[in-house]
Amino acid sequence: MTLTEILPTMRLSIPSPLAVDSWPVHTQPTVSDVIVAGVSLIRLAEISGTPAVLTGDLPRPGRPRERALTGGTDVTVLVFRITLRVDTQEDKRIALTDCTFDGVTAQWSECRLIGRAWGSRSVRIELIPGDVGDASWPHPVAMLPGDLREGDLVVVPCLGAASLHDVRPQRPGVADAGSPALGICDQTARIRPLMTPSTART
pTM (2 decimals)? Predict the structure, then answer.
């Protein structure tokens, strides 16, 4: 258990630590953001919209057999937004998201809020994907701030290389168009192309 878990208000001034082996190399947390190789995940969401994906290399890829079991040497960070937040009468906390999770292997123990600092205690929140009509059950559960609300940004690392096609909800009659800003559809955004603003298309 970390100090910020024991005293949640310390998150207002000290970033919650992350497991470096689960995130791309050169990942650094701040009190309200996660920076991956110089790329702000908040800024990524502002430019490309959500859901968004950013793929990089694992800091310690491991042996060939381990790489085969864990998705190779790649890790993808998924950025998504909370679209609805509900507490049921049974004291169950639910959050609807703007993405789907069936196409990725998310490391939910590393799931975290970005976009604002928070001092509330973390609670178990069930995350319901945007394509709930076709989504498998049970839905993933993550430890997130108790004051999580509609519009909040959440990030989670996922094993291997994933594309927007893997996380974008597929609604009947709606084609899977690429990201409006980056023009990404079936290919994964790598860290390097996102490090300069000139690579983004408006």
Answer: 0.76
